[in-house]
Write a structure and sequence with these properties.
mainly beta, six-stranded antiparallel β-barrel, 1 helix
Length: 99
């Protein structure tokens, strides 16, 4: 199965008790707990993350690789569904396209 690379274009960064909304960058993950807010697909569509349901270290069985799996409810247009977004050391990806 193929990976579907995505760009996380906005995240919440938890620093102690303060949460800041900033653009995503690769160096954040090493220092802070990050929560995706908006995802830009390879095709240019923006997926809005409504809620993060769970975060755990897990292998992607469909796409291969291991990373932090963010199970989220997300919205694209008028479609809302549960998605899994993975973050490995440097990249974000989804196992399936959002349809």
């Amino acid at each position: 199965m193929a990976k579907f690379p995505v760009s996380v274009i906005a995240v919440h960064v938890a620093e102690g008790s303060e949460i800041t909304r900033i653009p995503a960058s690769p160096g954040l993950a090493a220092k802070y707990k990050i929560i995706p807010l908006r995802i830009l697909t390879h095709g240019g569509e923006k997926i809005y993350v409504d809620r993060v349901l769970n975060i755990q270290r897990e292998a992607s069985l469909k796409a291969g690789g291991i990373g932090d799996k963010y199970t989220c409810t997300a919205t694209l247009g008028e479609t809302q569904r549960e998605i899994a977004v993975y973050r490995d050391d440097t990249d974000w990806f989804m196992e399936d396209e959002f349809k």
